[in-house]
Amino acid sequence: MSSGTLYDKVWDLHRVADLPGGSTQLFIGLHLIHEVTSPQAFAALEDKGLAVRCPQRTVATVDHIVPTTSQARPFADPLAEEMLSTLERNCSNHGITLHGLGSGRQGIVHVIAPELGLTQPGMTVACGDSHTSTHGAFGAIAFGIGTSQVRDVLASQSLAMNKLKVRRIWVENKLSPGVFAKDLILHVIRSLGVKAGVGHAYEFAGPAIEALSMEERMTLCNMAIEGGARCGYVNPDQTTFDYLHGRAEAPTAEAWDRALTWWRSLASGADARFDDEVRFDAATIAPTVTWGITPGQGIGVDETVPTPEQLDPADRPIAEEAYRYMDLAPGQAIAGVPVDVCFIGSCTNGRLSDLQAAAAVAKGRHVASGIRAFVVPGSEQVARAAEAEGLDAVFREAGFEWREPGCSMCLAMNPDRLEGRQISASSSNRNFKGRQGSASGRTLLMSPAMVAAAAITGQVRDVRQLNWMTSDD
Amino acid sequence: MVRGRALVLRGDDIDTDRIIPARFLKCVSFEALGAQAFADDRQELAGRHPFDQSVHAGASILVVNDNFGCGSSREHAPQALMRWGIRALVGVSFAEIFYGNCLALGIPCATAASQQISLLQDAVAADPSENWLLDLNGLTFSGGSVSEPIQVASGALDMLRSGQWDATGQLVARDDELTRTMDNLPYLRGF
Description:
A: Aconitase, domain 3, five-stranded parallel sheet, 32% helix, B: alpha/beta, Aconitase, domain 4, 7 strands
């Protein structure tokens, strides 16, 4: 059993009571809601005649269903319009802050809460969305929940939870140029598998993690769930504090100094005990691309699609299904696979540094003939910051579409989707069958820089071969 | 205790996007989801999907493999299964959020070792008309001449046995303790 880890400390501070049956009632410090998983929760709350316990600890935005071309109301899709107006009504009735379209603060829920300074070290964060693990980047304990649990948080600002085991993922050395946090997490999931994290929180630690920016840490923790871990986190450090300082909802003046003292005390100590530990070497990781239908089916861009013989026998049936579905042959090189659509955005990779990395590749080049490529900033703040430094112009001149913020083609609950058998190079998080809106559509997950390289060349291409340098190299 | 006919869905890592594709999440109520369970898989298999076969109409126990329900946190997934008619699942393992979402609806997700699941899947497939019993007291899953031990985590088992899987009441009842916890949290009192 773990002890002395950040997870243990935050868990203990938020414990309300032991419940019959052995679970723990855990206080939720920050509850984030959006239009897809909350309407039934509000309806259930009203059915039970209950009020929202702490309306000031729930914050709402709209992201999944918003169109990324015109966001004029009412939306062309009446179902999307109904979902947003239901959220607006619920927030208004219950005194919950909604960062709506055009507010300057709207965006993907896992992009806006950090950029507003809502997500802070030592908090428990819950949201009806599995990528809530993102917020663990700040040393928060953050996890996705279902709609019944959204109802529970609204009613009681708490959840019935079971404590997880803690696995430390220790990463030595440093990522090479052209290799990003996205490649690191795809490599971790490829190595450990998509269900290794079930029942665990992943603590990401070691020199390679400490060297990551906050936005990179968010990418990393975002995809912990794709490895089965409901929550992933990084211990807070100076990088965390520098990011938070001056944010709208961050503490100020003397409260900031007191917060720093407390936040510093939360990190897993030298005497912390983990349930287990896995080690990686960042320097050996290549840009990583998925070839199959689970995020665990990833390979280095210089590798070939694994043959059944190279796989564990238990992994062969789903690999066989993936060869058929993806129309990729065992032994085939992933580099050179032609793509149709290139998508840069999502809660995994829709932040300013992601757009900067992709723009550095796109600058002075042009999207290959026949390729549809588009960039969807993660939030209104990201969009305005990118426009202020001219990234929208770089993308437009290179033949990319520049869109309004939203979840877009990550899950295609809006007009952005694949058609038929189209194959996408995507900076999102899931390559499940049908995920991007076409029942036979195909997805190759990769970093934003790799998506830009695919857009320019029309095929999967090692971004390191494009004579490309980031501005700080 | 869940009694009924069973059906088999083979394959590891069946994700919630397959159970209920995202386009069906555009709704403000769960009511219509039953008909849309596995919509894309069913379309691909053109009538050969177990959920489309008339011999399985009315079945209520779904026997699956490893890591069932991985991916998105959408409660729409168990809601769709429940509204199709599923009252219990038996499998090698379940993704965590899916498991919790099922529990919140009173749907047991029982587990058994991979070999037992294979054996059970073969037995269920051999006679779709057989009646099966998921016994939460004896912790067995049995039908005809086959009976295999199953596991359910102790906390979930207590909730399912007592019928108290709806946590809201328990959580709301401890408001004094909740207030005490809040009073001790640095970020709620100016650090």
